[in-house]
Each structure stands twice: as C-alpha cells, then as structure tokens.
Amino acid sequence: MGRGTYMPSEASGNPDLEVEHFTFSPSIADYIREASLVISHAGSGSIFETLRLGKPLVVVVNEDLMDNHQSELADELAERNHLFCARPQTLRETVEGMDLNVLQPYMPGDAKPVVALINKFLGFPVN
C-alpha cells in the first residue's frame, strides 16, 4: 500500500480467500515468495521482482499518471502472457476470469551486448 493512509477492509464473501496487505516494506521479496498470487501497482521494480520470483501477477495500472509508461509496460507484458493487466474498475473481473495456465515465464534478456555497444560508442575499453 506504500506510504498512504488508505486501509483496505477485510475480504468478505469468500472464507477461502486470505488477503494480506502492509503499509511499506523496503523489500517485499519475502512476501512475494510466500504468495500464491501477487496484485501490484505497475511500477517496473515491482513487476520485474515478482516475475523474477516466478509468481503469478496481476498488475493494476494507475490511469491518472501522465505519460503512462507503466501502462505501456504492463500492457506489453500482458500481451506476451507474462502477467495479467487490470485497471481499478476491472480488477475483480480480471481475477475472477484469469487462467494461470496461460502465463509464460519471463526470461530476462542479456544486457551485455548493449553495454559493449555503449562502451564502444563512448570510447571505453570493450572486453
């Protein structure tokens, strides 16, 4: 939930659903490792940390942001079946209708060729 003041109410209507939330944590990796599903904002750090840990992820995009790169990233990763993307008004529908079997593992790319190209362009030694 970040550093805000909003406090969610307990999940009702489904005794089998256990929802945990917390205000702020410098590292959420332990929470993610224990989760069966992660619902997160669309920040790139949260997205890639969750994908790296191999957990199913629903990203909720904040449509109020200007130049919404979060939406672009979330939509692209959803298109590639790495996660599910929702808006606040479609979150419930997304969770109820999602099929975890369609998700594909995210494999990070190799940045070394890009680093070598930048180093060469800037005149730094290339290993």
From TrEMBL:
<protein>
    <submittedName>
        <fullName>Uncharacterized protein</fullName>
    </submittedName>
</protein>
